[in-house]
Each structure stands twice: as C-alpha cells, then as structure tokens.
Amino acid sequence: MSEEGRRCLAVQHALQAAGLFESSAAWRVSPVPFPLTADEVSFFEDLGPRLWSFSKALNRLYLESVKGRQPFWVHQYLDQGKPQALLEYARMKRFREAVPSVIRPDVIPTEAGMTITELDSVPGGIGITGSLSAAYAALGDTLVGGADGMIDGFAGLFGSGEDAGCVAIVVSDEAEDYRTEMDWVACRLRDKGLDAWCVHPRDLRFTEEQPSLVPTLFASTPSGERPVSHVYRFFELFDLDNIPKSELLMYTAKKGGVSVTPPYKPWMEEKLAFALLHHPMLEKFWADELGPDVFAHLRQVMPKTWIVDPRPLPPSAIIPDLTLDGKAVSDWRQLAQATQKQRQCVLKPSGFSELAWGSRGVVVGHDIPQSAWAAKLDQALDAFSSTPYVFQAFHKGRQFEMTYWDERAGQPASMEGRARLSPYYFVSGDEVTLGGILATVCPKDKKLLHGMRDAIMAPCALPMR
C-alpha cells in the first residue's frame, strides 16, 4: 500500500476507535491535513481576539438599545420572534456581561482574501476537529492548535481539575447527531482530570432543600450522580419548549447554582449581527467599541449583509448600499425580478429557528431559477415577524486540489474543491485561544460549503519550516 493510503487508513482507524467514523463514511479522509501559509495562520491568530471584541460589543449594543442609549430598532430586530419570558431572563443583571465562550466563524478563502460568512455560538465539530487533530498529529503532522488544542481550549473554559467541579455537556434530542462527538469530548476531558460528562437534559435533577440555600443541579452519569458546577449548553434556544427540565436549569443558573455557557442570549446567536456591523447609523458605536483598525478589518472580512424588512420606506429613503444594476433599492420586492447575474447573493434565516441550523434554510440566489428566487424572497418577507431573514453578498471560494482515500477503488484519488475553514476559539477570562481549525473541502460545483459525503474534512496544518 502507498504511503498516502497508509496514512488515510491510520486516520480512519483512529476515528473508528473513537466511535466517530463509520464504515459508510460521512465524509472523505485526506492523507494530509489542509495546508495554511504563514500569512493565513497569522490571520486566524489575530481573528480570535477581534471576534471576541465584536461579541462583547454586540452584547453592549443590544443592552444599550434596550435602555434607549442606542437606536431602539437594534433590539427590536434582535428580539423579533423571541418569547418575552426568554428576553426578560436573558436581560437579567446577573447575566449582563455573559457572552459565548466558544466562537466559531465559518471562513471562506476567496481570490480576494478571507470572507466570514457567519458566526456560530453553539458550534458542532468540536469533537470531530479534536479527534482529527489527534489522529494527524500521531502521524507526525504539525497542526494549528496541536494534537490536544481543542480539548485543552475547551477545558480552559471551566478551570482545572477538581477545582472546576463537574461539567455537564447537555445535548438535546434536536442535536442528537452530535452526541457521539460530545461524548468523546467529555471522555478526553476526564483524561485531562476534569469531571466532565455528556448528558441528556432528562439526566438532570434539581434540588432546593431550603429556600435560603442556593439550588443544586445534579447529573446522572455512568459513574453515579454528580453535583454540577458548569453546564455547556449544546442545544438551541428556539427548541427550549421541547427540552426536558429546561426551566429547572434556567432557574438554577438564575440563582447562581450553576454557570451556563453559551448564555441564554438569543441576540448573540443572530446572523443579522453582520447587518448591524455594516449599518451606517451604527458606525460611530462600532468604531468607538472596537477601535478603528478592528472595525475596518471586520467590515472587510464580514460581507455586506442586510435585514430583509418588508415595511415600506418613505419615498426619499433607500436601503443603504443596496443596489440593483447600479440603481438604489427602496423596496425588497424590486429584487424579485433580478437576473441570475444580479442574484450573486445568499438568503437565510437570521436565527431562532430550526431553519437557521446548519444550511437548512440557506438559499443561493444564482443557484435557482428566477421564479423560485421570487418565491423564496416572498417567503422571507412574509416570515419577518417571526423569523427575520438576512440578504448577504455571495463570495465565491477559490479552488484547491486535495487527495482523499477512495474507498470503492481502494486507492487515493484527487478532487478539485472549495474550502470552508472553521477555527475554534475558546475564551477564558479575556484570553482567547485558537484550539484548531477544521477544513471542509466540497466539490467545486457546490455553492453551499458544509459537511457532506463528498466533502474532505481535515484539520489545518502549520506551514513547514
């Protein structure tokens, strides 16, 4: 067998041993990690602190909008379609400064540079990226984050050893596809000395023996019942009504009995945050909060995005920076007749919906017929009151050629494709750590870049010295 074949099988066997790779593969395995240049590594190392600043600024913008110190329409957009009880809970003083501790942008390398299509505050792939990193590192590859960067970064969210207390990674039915990899994460955390377990919400138990005492949350684990200090929330906020004991978990967090990350803040999980970054009325806020250099950088790498708002504008008003054939647009319905060339865009739900998860609700404008595009635009406009949509400029990824193991042929094969690079940043205090980067390379004819059977998935490697 060739060296390439030997390496591919070694990676497969490592993942199968971890329970993360079945015989009918969900993706293709490469003999080598995805290579980055020194400049690209620097880009990703600098990006984490910038996105951390953006997250804190977004949280502040929302809260100041609620108080009337920033435009009221900011929180109105972000609150659209959310239950009032959840908003009141999320705005509590106890949680004021809380923001997600794991940040994962989806980054597309284009001919013009890197483009961030969105941010994910409840990202999957932590276990896959961690296990792939360990597998390739065992073959001698030098990876971004190293062999254990993902696990060390995740562990850093909760302290160290016994001082951290028990960590419950709570995975809902809706996120069932990720349970195996989060089980792997919990197992690796225990190897590092952390008392961590992946549990279902129904495995939680709540007790409050006396009204004056802080309530306690317990998790039923294979090693017995554990009092929980920290919860990693691996479920979506739109799904709260379907999650057993969610109210008890929220109550325990409210009373200080347990810490929860990501926090219950729906405004931190909306794709329309990109539209707020580009809104001309908010330029001063962003420049003051981020600093002019970080603000300019994020506006460059985050594509122009607009909120699809069906409400009529005054005759003298236009949608800022949105044009059709060089002409200003004042009504979204003007775009219904756009040609394929004019529809170089993406339409997608902003958040708080089962359609906002993964790529379920994403429409690439130039990838569908004009009649279908008009129907999708109408659907987005009609959904505004419950699930706002965003309209985002489409940036085509540049092509890469990668080798993968062809299981049917029993030999290596090559594929031309486009890549999505997903760095995982872990935040402890104000320290931002890059744990690893997962590359997903899809066939070049695919417009949406995500995990699929025909995609190659591999960790990113540091440049060879």
List descriptors.
single chain, 465 residues, alpha+beta, Rossmann fold, seven-stranded mixed sheet, six-stranded mixed sheet
Task: Give structural notes.
The protein has 465 residues and is an alpha+beta fold. Among the domains are: 156-261, Rossmann fold (3-Layer(aba) Sandwich), CATH 3.40.50; 304-393. Helix content is 30%, strand content 25%. The protein is built from twelve helices and 19 strands. Helix 8 links the parallel strand 8 (224-234) and strand 9. The chain is globular and about 65 Å long.
Topology:
Blueprint: H1 3-17, E1 34-35, H2 38-67, H3 72-79, H4 84-90, E2 102-110, E3 113-120, H5 126-137, H6 149-155, E4 166-171, H7 179-191, E5 196-199, E6 204-207, E7 216-221, E8 224-234, H8 246-254, E9 259-261, H9 273-278, H10 283-290, H11 292-301, E10 305-307, E11 323-324, E12 327-328, E13 345-349, E14 363-364, H12 370-382, E15 389-393, E16 399-406, E17 411-428, E18 431-443, E19 456-461
Parallel strand pairs: 1-19, 4-5, 4-8, 8-9
Antiparallel strand pairs: 2-3, 2-17, 6-7, 7-8, 10-15, 11-12, 13-14, 13-15, 16-17, 17-18, 18-19
Helix pairs in contact: 1-5, 2-3, 2-10, 5-7, 10-11
